Amino acid sequence: MKVVKENIDDLNALLTVTVEKKDYQEKVDKALNDYRKKANIPGFRKGMVPMGMIKKQYGKSLLADELNRLVGESLYKYIEDEKLDILGNPLPKNDIEVKGDFDNPDNFEFVYEIGMAPKLDIKLTAKNKYPYTKVKVDKKLIDQQIEDLTRRYGKLVSSETVGEKDMIMGQFVELTDKGEIKEGGVMNNSTVTMEFIDKKAQKELLGKKVGDKIVIDPMLMARDNHDAHHMLNIPESDIPNISKKFQFTINEVKVMQPAEMNQDLFDKLFGKDQITSEKDLRDKLKEDLTKMFEKDSERILVRRISADLLKKTDVQLPNEFLKRWIIASQETPITMEEVNSDYENYTRSLKWQLIQNNIFKANEIKIGHEEAIHYTKGLLANQYAQYGMPIPEDKELAHSAHHVLENQKEAQQIYDMIGEDKLINFFKETVKLDENEVDYEEFVKIAQDKEA
Can you name the residues that pair with 111 across neighbouring β-strands? Predict the structure, then answer.
């Protein structure tokens, strides 16, 4: 077999594969003999069918299978040996027919198109300056965290009056337009939480007492149709047909009584005697919040650097080839129109992947198998800890990690996670970071704004 490469331009090339008769004949003859031994054809004993009949019936398909196998192997061996950096996979050239005669087989010639990855040279140094936004973990944020924790570990107690964060147990009754109870209408007891209902409903309920009644649109008490379906105990499909007037009777009010700031709460939060004072609690919360928000800060940094590099780097792609490859590689058929509609998003993702690959290659950033095992063991240990389960011994963890990495999809996710961590570390060690702190609300806005 012989493979010859012909460059069309910097991004497109043709690979011509020549398969000689000696390359396939032995395998095809063996396959034909195997078929002859197994064939059940009326009028002939098993294994005694004339070879000419076997060739006529199965010869072309067996030859085609063997040629496909040989061509595939030779293509990928050539690409590997020549260290070609290609995009996608080779595609048969549409306007060139296979050279060769299946009726009188001898030599065959196949022509494939390949798309070449562009050559990039990404330079990042301390001269490159990027903003690095951090959350200001101040007293206000820590106070809010303490409030949330004491509420989470608090207890519900009864109250006579509705407050801003209370739970209300009451009865919904559907009314007519005249304000009368609708015969055969919806009637259901349910619980609503003041924090999750519309502001108009909050205003109506705030300060009301057990036994009070209000008339209200029930959709103001629900977050969406799915929530209303549970609240009123009716099919979601019936929601558009219900009345806009419901009587809601307050049967019970529950207020969350925060847990006391004492050793019992500290032990529930962090384990026995790990925290022994409010000051220790505040210090611990500040440390944990700083670590938690650091990951978000890093994600914003990567987003900013990627946007900058994509803007500054001229990444040329073999677009026509890629579009055909996308269509050919889909499990379900798609049209060129569908490909074109989403092609910009696809190429943006591909360009960033190529930039990352260049950074990794140029800076010799690699991910070893043992590193992946160690990382996976850490993920598994964290899972055990989250569920309050004892962490297995290292040998068992290692066995589980090997098992996880045998799954191609899970392995790819883990390698991607390690790669992301390495990329972040490279950025933080290489470029100049212009650090600035903002309050939590501003940070959330920045994190949600893809242009920031």
Answer: 16
d(CA 118, CA 315): 7
- 148, 384 contact by CB (below 8 A): no
> Does residue 181 register a pLDDT over 80?
yes
Residue 236 DSSP label: G
pLDDT confidence band for 395 (50 / 70 / 90): very high
Report pLDDT digits (tens) over 62-103: 999 999 999 999 999 999 999 999 999 999 998 899 999 998
Residue type, 183: E
Task: For residue 48, name the pLDDT band (cuts at 50, 70, 90).
Answer: confident
Q: How far is CA 374 from CA 61, 156, 368, 369, 380, in A?
A: 48, 44, 10, 9, 10
Residue from 82, 91, 76, 86 nearest 119 by CA = 86
Find the length of the chain: 452
Residue carrying the six token digits 């990027």: 130
Q: Residue 278's closest CA among 296, 266, 286, 267? A: 266
User: Which two three-digit tokens encode residue 120?
Assistant: 């990039």
